[in-house]
Automatic annotation (TrEMBL):
Chain spans, region Disordered: 278-299
InterPro entries in the cross-refs: Aldolase_TIM (IPR013785), Alpga-gal_N_sf (IPR038417), Alpha-glycosidase_related (IPR050985), GH (IPR017853), Glyco_hydro_36 (IPR002252), Glyco_hydro_36_N (IPR031704)
Presence of keyword Isomerase: no
UniProt lineage: Bacteria, Bacillati, Actinomycetota, Actinomycetes, Streptosporangiales
Catalytic activity: Hydrolysis of terminal, non-reducing alpha-D-galactose residues in alpha-D-galactosides, including galactose oligosaccharides, galactomannans and galactolipids
Gene3D superfamilies noted in UniProt: Aldolase class I, alpha-galactosidase from lactobacil brevis
Any GO BP: carbohydrate catabolic process
Record keywords, A-Z: Glycosidase, Hydrolase
The protein's enzyme class: hydrolase
The enzyme's E.C. designation: 3.2.1.22
Organism, as annotated: Nonomuraea gerenzanensis
Domain Glycosyl hydrolase family 36 N-terminal per the UniProt entry, residue ranges: 88-198
Protein name per Swiss-Prot or TrEMBL: alpha-galactosidase
Domain of life where this protein originates: Bacteria
GO terms assigned for molecular function: alpha-galactosidase activity
Length: 734
């Protein structure tokens, strides 16, 4: 222990250890964040401040654009701590104080018992006599424990409409070069940073990231739990690599908050899952190099070996999965996981009518669906509804005898009726645009913000909330709707300048009001199921998913392009929340139907397709996939993901996702056009064990063979069936 340490605060439980160092002459810092109760190997001392606070009067201690070494952060000193536990969660509060600025900061860490993950947020209070403007406050800031930053890999994911969850693993040095900082005696100024803009929290990047030590496999995997703007960054300091996570900032998002004396500000929550690492893991594929663009390839000095770090990453993913299950709001949907049929994707495509829906409802029920969601268009009388939405009354032309006829048919078939809804927008041609006051909308300079023919409600305003409450309560109580697909197809940008010190502060307050509204809806209607959708998955974050029951993972209509999205989804969300579309069609071959069904079976199967026009043998193949999925749902709630070919590259010809539950590992494996006939899947958790390998779906299909090498922990899969082709495999120890 360094000689200048006057105190350490040690906190944790069987799954997590955190050690905070208190120094007399430098900032309080996080010395250790590791899995389990035993201390990790000692890390080099770090002076990275535990909390960073950027204010305009002082800025940073050293010139840069980082969220590291802020002047206030460098002066914050220890002022006490408290530890407690309740309801299965452990909590640590570290109090800090800066005498010069009058700012106090309280770091709040929460962790579910036995789970190697922690949620962190910071409360900043102005205890001085003068107002203090805040330009940025980190939710988490710490040094990553490693001998050399040059030995670290960076993990992050790009995302956009139709191409969500595209993960990349690269050496940190590809983005932050070795500058020889020791010879200069100063920290670096550069950083690798990802940000989001507006309200599409995953519109450009997934609000997650990670660092992996290639030598040890030690991994930190983080998520930012915010339905609005965020920033995370990493870079090199004299004493190693650091990580800083935050919500909106002035530099990136036009956010600032003026703290009057006595006022406080709380950052958005973030979570960090940790793994102490292992040298087991990895993946390789013969023939195509599948996985070479994915995470499993582990670019860097050990690229291709697939050894160090993979198991650490998967262990951290397992910890994050367990944390998310502890975080999500209890709901009757969770133990049941009813299977949803939605009429949109490659089927009615926003053009529902009674004539089209009634045979589709009967076919969906016969296939085994338990929820039937009527998607977009049910409110449209004129055929051009995009910029007229907002009142949410059923169409009279589409449903001559009323929408009630359709909803009654759904309930008579034993299914829960659902509707598509985009609650946060009002079309510029909607009657509601004139009925609601200007103050009920996000604005800039006195003008309502408009995007793609829609205004955006400001959920800080009581008139906006009252309107949405009336809509939801009417549809639930009068029409018997039990499921809403909550879509979100515009992004209002930086925010609103109404009743806010900055447009970013106005947006943050709206973001938080939106979450409060969702909670109030579920409080009033506790059995109502809410799906999170945002042009697919462009608002995929755990501010939303801790409250809502499932997440549409994409709007991707090409069944050949969907598998990499589905394979990567369990790193970004719970497997049981990952609503992956399967949309079999009458024109598909049996192998193509199996291919699209496999995309949904190991997640929250989200079924669509023109079932009434399918042949009996095609319907039987769909029903077989539905039965398999329904038989797996109890295990889905306990499963942790693994990636035997590494996280997927967008164009990988072979793809695989594994879900581990107890002694059973279930695999979905896809072979896309252009793939060779053989892939080798690495399953290190089954090393040395004899297995039975069952081709579970389609059960009667031929053309696939599997061979297990227990010593190498490799499953060789050979497919003679022409691509596209896919299978569900069950692996059980003998």
């Amino acid at each position: 222990m360094p000689a200048d340490v006057v105190e350490t605060v040690r906190w944790g439980h069987t799954g997590l250890t955190a050690v905070v160092e208190i120094h007399p002459d430098r900032p309080v810092s996080l010395r250790e964040l590791s899995a389990g109760t035993r201390s990790a190997p000692p890390a080099a001392p770090s002076s990275q401040p535990l909390v960073e606070v950027l204010v305009p009067g002082e800025g940073r201690a050293r010139a840069s654009q980082r969220l590291s070494e802020t002047a206030v952060g460098c002066r914050l000193r220890y002022a006490g701590s408290e530890q407690s536990s309740a309801n299965g969660w452990h909590e640590l509060r570290i109090r800090l104080r800066d005498q010069a600025s009058g700012l106090d900061a309280e770091l709040i860490m929460r962790s579910p018992d036995g789970v190697s993950a922690v949620q962190v947020r910071v409360l900043v209070t102005n205890t001085g006599e003068h107002p203090v403007p805040l330009l940025a406050v980190t939710s988490f800031a710490a040094a990553f424990p490693a001998e050399h930053a040059s030995g670290l890999d960076l993990l992050y994911a790009d995302s956009e409409w139709l191409a969500e969850n595209r993960w990349t693993r690269r050496p940190l040095g590809d983005h932050v070069p070795d500058l020889g900082l020791g010879a200069h005696g100063q920290h670096g100024k550069g950083t690798f940073a990802l940000t989001s803009q507006g309200t599409w929290s995953s519109g450009r990047h997934v609000p997650m990231g990670g660092l992996i030590d290639r030598r040890t496999g030690r991994t930190w995997l983080w998520q930012i739990e915010h339905n609005g703007p965020w920033r995370w960054e990493t870079g090199e300091r004299l004493d190693g690599a650091y990580v800083a996570l935050s919500g909106p900032t002035d530099l990136d998002h036009q956010w600032n908050e003026l703290l009057a004396p006595g006022e406080s500000f709380t950052t958005v929550p973030v979570a960090i899952a940790v793994s102490d690492g292992s040298r087991e893991g990895g993946a390789r594929v013969t023939g195509d190099g599948a996985g070479a663009s994915g995470v499993g390839a582990s670019a860097g000095p050990e690229a291709g070996a697939g050894a160090a770090g993979i198991d650490g990453m998967e262990s951290a993913a397992a910890a994050l999965t367990a944390y998310r299950r502890a975080l999500v709001r209890p709901h009757p949907d969770r133990p049941a996981l009813p299977l949803i049929f939605n009429d949109y994707m490659n089927t009615l495509m926003g053009d529902p009518t009674t004539e089209k829906l009634l045979p589709l409802i009967d076919a969906a029920a016969a296939a085994g669906a338990q929820v039937f969601c009527v998607d977009a268009g049910w409110y449209d009388d004129g055929g051009d509804w995009w910029d007229s939405v907002g009142e949410w009354h059923p169409s009279q032309t589409r449903f001559p005898h009323g929408l009630e006829e359709v909803l009654t048919r759904i309930t008579s078939a034993g299914m829960t009726p659902g509707l598509w809804l985009e609650p946060e927008v009002i079309g510029v041609r909607s009657p509601m645009a004139d009925k609601l006051p200007d103050a009920a909308f996000l604005q800039r300079g006195g003008v309502r913000l408009a995007e793609h023919g829609r205004y955006h409600l400001d959920l800080r305003h009581p008139a906006a909330v009252a309107h949405l409450d009336q809509v939801v309560d009417r549809l639930v109580e009068e029409l018997g709707v039990g499921y809403f697909k909550l879509d979100y197809n515009i992004n209002p940008g930086a925010g609103t300048d109404v009743d806010a010190p900055s447009v970013g502060a106005g947006l943050l307050a709206h973001n938080r009001a939106h979450l409060a509204w969702l909670e109030s809806v579920l409080d009033r209607h506790p059995r109502l199921v809410l799906e999170n959708c945002g042009s697919g998955a462009m608002r995929m974050d755990y501010a939303m998913l801790s409250r809502l029951q499932l997440q549409s993972t994409s709007d991707q209509q090409d069944f050949l392009r969907y598998p990499p999205i589905a394979v990567a989804a369990p790193l970004s969300m719970l497997p049981e929340q990952a609503a992956n579309w399967a949309y079999p069609q009458p024109g598909m071959t049996a192998e193509e139907i199996a291919f699209t069904m496999c995309t949904g079976i190991l997640g929250r199967l989200y079924l669509s397709g023109d079932l009434p026009r399918m042949a009996p043998e095609q319907l039987a193949l769909v029903a077989e996939g539905v039965r398999l999925h329904r038989s797996l749902r109890a295990d889905l709630l306990r499963a942790t993901p693994c990636w035997p070919l590494g996280l997927p590259g967008w164009d990988d010809p072979w793809l695989a996702l594994g879900l581990r539950t107890g002694q059973v590992t279930r695999l979905a494996v896809w072979r896309r056009p252009g793939a060779s006939g053989t892939a080798v899947l690495r399953l290190p958790h089954l090393a040395g064990r004899d297995l039975t390998v069952e081709l579970a779906y389609p059960a009667a299909a031929e053309g696939w063979a599997c061979s297990w090498n227990a010593r190498a922990a490799e499953l060789t899969v050979t497919a003679t069936t022409p691509a596209p082709t896919a299978r569900i495999l069950h692996l059980r120890p003998l």
